[in-house]
Structure formats: C-alpha cells, structure tokens
Description:
By secondary structure, the chain is an alpha/beta fold. It has helices at 3-15, 18-26, 41-46, 74-86, 101-113, 133-152, 158-184, 191-200, 206-218, 243-250, 264-267, 277-287, 300-312, 326-341, 358-378; strands at 31-35, 50-54, 93-98, 118-123, 230-236, 253-258, 316-322, 346-351. It is built from 15 helices and 8 strands. Helix 1 packs antiparallel against helix 9 and helix 7 (158-184) packs parallel to helix 9 (206-218). The model has no long low-confidence stretch (mean pLDDT 92). Residues 73, 75-76, 99-100, 102-103, 237, 292-293, 322, 325-328 line the site of iron/sulfur cluster (SF4).
Amino acid sequence: xxxxxxxxxIQDIATDPFAYIKAKKVAGKxxxxxxxxxxxxxxxxxxxxxxxTILGTNEPIVxxxxxxxxxxxxxxxxxxxxxxxxxxxxxxxxxxxxxxDTTQHLSDIWRMTIPADFFASxxxxxxxxxxxxxxxxxxxxxxxxxxxxxxxxxxxTDAALRESFRFYNEVRALLxxxxxxxRAFPGTISNREMFDLxxxxxxxxxxxxxxxxxxxxxxxxxxxEEKRLLPVVLSGIAVEPMQLLNILDDLGVxxxxxxxxxxxxxxxxxxxxxxxPVEALTARHFAKSPxxxxxxxxxxxYDHLVTLVEQTRPAGVIYFHIKFCESQDYDLPxxxxxxxxxxxxxxxxxxxxxxxxxxxxxTRLEAFVESLYGERENG
Length: 379
Ligand code: SF4
C-alpha cells in the first residue's frame, strides 16, 4: 500500500469517523464517547470498549440551542449538537470529563438529555499543584475503573490495562516520530496530514491504527522542500475548522510545534507499563502540558509557550481561540503581553465550529503570514 492510500484511509476516518465506529460496533465493540479532554482512553480500552473522543461537528446547530445559552462555548454547543442531532445512535455510553464551568453544567444537561446505557462523570482537578490533586485524580480514575467494570460485566484487570498502555504508547511514539520527521524535513508531511494522523488516533482502535502508521512511516523520505517553508507554532485547544490547516499549507507554512489539545498534548508522554496502573495513569496526567482550564501556578501556561518558542524558533505564533471559551479568555491578555515582551509575532484567531467567518479568518491568516514573510526578508 503506497503512502497516498495509507494516508487516505487514515484521513477518511479523521474527517468522518462514524462509518469506522459503526463497523466496529457491527463487529461487537461498544463505543464510549468522551467530549474532549483528559479521560484516560486506556481505561476505556482495557474495559473492552472503543474509546472515541467527541470533537464536535461543523453541521448547523439545530437542537443544542434549546439546552445551552448562546454564549456557551462553541465546542460545548457543537458537541451536544453532534450527539443530539446527528450521532445519537453512535455511542453506547459516555465518560464526561469536567474541566471547566461549561463542562460542569454540560455534564448534567448531557446526562438528562441523551439516553445512554452508561454515563460516568470524570472530575478532573483544575489546580494541579494542590496537595490533594493527585489523590483526587487517582481516586477518580479508580472510580472510573469500577464503573466501566460494572458496565463491561467483568473487572478491568491490571494485565488488560498494561496491554492497553502498550498499544497507546506505541501510537503516541509513532506519531511523535512522524512529527519529528515533519520538523526535520518540512514538506514531507503537510500540516493537515499531521493533524489528521493525530486526530485519527482519537477515534481508532490502536490495533487498527498502528499497522497503518508503521506502513506510513516506511514511506517517509528525507527530501528537502525546495521552497523554504515558514516555521510557525500553533497554540490553543483545537484548530477548527480543520480546513484552516489546509490554508496554512497553501500559504507555505510549516507547523514546527504546537501546544494544542488536539495536537501535541495528546501524544506527549507515555504511561509507565510497570507498577500500579492507576498510579501510572495519574503520573501521565500530571506530566502533561498545561491546558487553559487545567494548570498550576498562574504563569505555567505562558512559560510553556515561551519554552516551545525558544526550542522551535518559529517566525510567529498562531493562537486558536474557541468562541466563548472562558478559560482561554482569561489567558489571552497575559499571553499576548508575554509574546510582545519576547518580540514574537502572534495572531489570535476566533474560531467556531459552525464557522460563518471562515473567509474573514482566512484573510487575517493570509495577512499575518505575509507580514511574517516580510519580516523574514527584511530581517
Ligand atoms: S475549556 Fe473552553 S472550549 Fe473547553 S469546554 Fe470549557 S469553555 Fe469550552
């Protein structure tokens, strides 16, 4: 199978995972959906289910508006809409992470509005430097293990967990390798392709994805792109709509680093395959990069971006702000100031899943990239 075919197979699932999920269900797997953020997929997988991260829909909002105010973040509205209106029958159950005020309220709305055979809340501590945070996360993970065991009708064993760790660690390692290749040989993997590979890992059973990623890796060449691509770093939670990545490709930009949740934060760090598995999941969670609603000291988020910028030396930073995300709203003034102090050009793009301003976003992106090219030529 050539590179194009492998890529197409993965990208088809990344773009529209529902045919894949349906096929798994026909084969006897139950699908457990989790709105974005920090539910340990390994635990769901070890219980014998297909973990699926719910990443919203670009389809129109028809029903979610009746349950959420207009100023609820675009991700929350879009996720609720996806399950209420478009994919109600896809999921056998849900594990709902609570990471911010919106998800806290949404969890109750979700539980009351969407009938499912299984529903578990997963309460994630927001201040990770509190003494109690690790114990809390550990106990929540144990609680999830018990709940999933109950739904599966059999205990989630340590052996099953370790096997799931091996699978997911391998997926993450392969994706990190491919990302490294993209950095070293710009142009061999486009921005859209790289983020589609990562996205597919949020829907696919690792046993299906690993052979595809390995085959794809074998097809990698070490060609140098003739045209020098402009290095940039992406920040925020997710790039939505995904077509913005195609625009970056068209503009001659190479993403050399990111701190997106649907990005590097998903593939950094592995789970230790030794010792207490719940402890190992807890350790991975606390080793992850900060995320707008989950952090310790106030400056950690900014320090992380500064370090990434220093390591990857981009020409600029593109920050994706999900419309009405309160957590990101709190971060932005300080983040902008820190980037100004570092003399690092940064653009903030307001995005929403049902984007009606895509043309405007594209124009702003084009102008920003053009200004970076201008600076590079003059500097
Ligand atoms: S963190 Fe922001 S984008 Fe995520 S659910 Fe909360 S408000 Fe929405």
